[in-house]
Amino acid sequence: MTRPAGQEPHIELEGLRFQRDGRPIFEDVSLSIPRGKVTAIMGPSGTGKTTLLRLVTGQLLPERGSIRVDGQEVTGIGREALYRLRKRIGFLFQHGALLTDLDVYENVAFPLREHTQLPDCLIHHLVMTKLQSVGLRGAARLMPSQLSGGMARRVGLARAVVMDPELVLYDEPFAGLDPISMGVIVRLIREINEALGLTSVIVSHDIEEVSQVADWAWIIADGRIIAGGTPEELRGEESPWVRQFMHRLSDGPVPFHFPARDYPEDLREVPR
Amino acid sequence: MRAMFRDLGEALREFVETLGAMTRFLGRLLWETPAALMRFGLVWYQLHRIGAHSLLIIGISAVFVGMVLALQGYHILNQFGATESLGVMVAMTLVRELGPVLTAVLFAGRAGTSLASEIGLMRATDQLSGMEMMAVDPVKRVIMPRFLAGVIAVPLLAAIFSALGIFGGYVVGVGLLGVDAGPFWSQMNAAVDVRTDVMSGVWKSIAFGITASLVAVYEGYNAPPTAEGVSRATTRAIVITAVAVLAINLLITAIIVGEG
Ligand SMILES: Nc1ncnc2c1ncn2[C@@H]1O[C@H](COP(=O)(O)OP(=O)(O)OP(=O)(O)O)[C@@H](O)[C@H]1O
Ligand SMILES: [Mg+2]
Predict the structure, then answer these.
(1) Cβ distance A112 to A124 under 8 Å?
(2) How far apart are CA B235 and CA A247, in angstroms?
(3) In A155, A198, A237, B180, which residue has its Cα 20 to 30 A from A103's Cα atom?
(4) Boundaries of each ABC transporter domain copy (chain A) (predicted)?
(5) Taking the CB of residue A194, how many other CB atoms lie within 10 A of it?
(6) Mutate which: A69, A99, A108, A172, vs B, most B CBs within 10 A
(7) Which amino acid residue places its CA nearest to atom 1 of ligand 1?
(8) ipTM, 2 dp
(9) Nearest-CA neighbor of B39 among B145, B154, B179?
(10) pTM attached to this predicted model
(11) Cα separation of A89 and A106, whole Å?
């Protein structure tokens, strides 16, 4: 289960350890993400999926272990090198992170304007085709504050792929979408991946959608990788951890609760 | 008593730390200035936004200040039979002191606070880390245009303040109190020296422009990403600027007067 067989890795994590405020988020995580495929990272809320993406893009530093993207070590490289690397990565933020003083159009155009000298007509063409593919061409002149959460996510998606990156990291692309846009986005991610031959990483807990779109999935829980495989393999997996997650059982070894002390004790003691 | 000294020591330490951090930040901003000036479109946009916002309150305040200066000045000068020097008095006070100082304080209240809260909110809503993720340096893209726009705007606004203040003084002095218009202008012309008086006002307004803009962008950029953090940054933007501007004003005046 350590790696998808016979494929060149785009991202490789080895012996990763990371903690926050003294609480370990990752104990010892090793995984690899194959080039040119769609890989899902799944796990219950609060296990550190977003944290993992932030580590991969050098926004956070691990305490120990190595992170290689495209064969290049990410930890401890300088700002310049990090920025060069990030220009080749598209990132969809869990909450969109649109720039609130620019409209939808300018938000999608932002990376192009910052990093290229393309003429306006070409930028217009690129922006409009990306907006069309997420179904928001008509919303081009709305401000981010006028969008719903799902719309903002779709604009974020258009922005993440507008530079034609080699690697796209999607943090919860399906959350908050209605069934129709969900279907469109699932297909879109698949299409982008095949048309451009890029590597996609999807963080999600929507098992159905992930099964449709992913070639490979890793499941994280409790600071460790508990399983990896194709979605079909994971469905047939016998381990109680995986069974619980894949079949949405409420009872099992995967904790639903944030670490806490004894419940009755907490109830008895009124904080003052 | 001991607790009081400890608090004082603590406050002093914090003050020195903040001053050091701001100085380092200023160094970084000055280093980025040539590159930021190359993208003047961004600066121009901010200049337009900031300047337009501040222009109205600064203009209105200037007329009021000029009027009150003429009223008080007339009262005093009248006792010495020197009311024709009213123009000199109003112009000197505005150009050398009140123009730069009040402009900077009003600017901090109108534009500085909104810069600080805007930048603080951008941090709190992940927009700055979003930019970093797109390999765009927020200092270059967000901070620099706003900082430079402030640095350019304050001297211009101070000049407008002085001009409108003199106009207010004219309206009250000549129009209301019956001072002769001739000596009002001619004495002013003869007495206000461009090299010393006007330039001292210009230097001051440049120094204050840098101070007000630096404090605003620094406080916004370093605000904790919470509602309370942003609101504190906004308050600090005006409070720190006001105190700093008054202190720097005293310093510059002392140096200039000392030199003769
Ligand atoms: N800025 C922070 N400071 C301290 N702890 C944090 C911070 N951000 C996240 N954490 C902690 O890190 C853990 C992992 O957070 P993360 O956001 O990576 O979870 P996630 O797997 O993405 O969850 P979700 O599916 O709900 O988005 C959480 O337990 C959270 O409490
Ligand atoms: Mg998350």
Answers:
(1) no
(2) 52
(3) A198
(4) 11-247
(5) 11
(6) A99
(7) A20
(8) 0.81
(9) B145
(10) 0.85
(11) 19
Q: CA A77: distance to chain centroid?
A: 22
At residue A148, φ and ψ (nearest 5 deg) are -80, 170
Q: Comparing C-alpha atoms, which of A229, A198, A257, A236 is closest to residue A31? A: A229
Per-residue pLDDT of chain B (260 residues; tens, 9 = 90+): 778 888 888 888 988 898 999 999 999 999 999 999 999 999 999 999 998 889 999 999 999 999 999 999 999 998 988 888 888 999 999 999 999 999 999 999 999 999 999 999 999 988 998 999 999 999 999 999 999 999 999 999 999 999 999 999 999 999 988 888 888 888 888 888 888 888 889 999 999 999 999 999 999 999 999 999 999 999 999 999 999 999 999 999 888 877 65
CB spacing of B131 vs A111 below 8 angstroms:
no
Task: Evaluate the CA torsion angle B179, B183, B186, B192 in order and state its sign.
Answer: negative
Residues with CB under 6 A from ligand 1: A 20-21, 25, 43, 45-51, 94
User: Which sign does the torsion angle of CA B170, B173, B177, B181 carry?
Assistant: negative
DSSP string covering chain A: --S-TT--EEEEEEEEEEEETTEEEEEEEEEEEETTSEEEEE--TTSSHHHHHHHHTTSS--SEEEEEETTEE-TT--HHHHHHHHTTEEEE-TT----TTS-HHHHHHHHHHHH----HHHHHHHHHHHHHHTT-GGGTT--GGGS-HHHHHHHHHHHHHTT--SEEEEESSSTT--HHHHHHHHHHHHHHHHHHT-EEEEE---HHHHHHH-SEEEEEETTEEEEEE-HHHHHH---HHHHHHHTT-SSSSS--SPS---HHHHHH----
How far is it, in rounded angstroms, from Cα A177 to Cα A206? 11
Pairing of strands A9-20, A23-34: antiparallel
Token digits of residue A225 = 């990788």
Q: In what order do the strands lie in the sheet with A9-20?
A: A23-34, A9-20, A64-69, A72-73
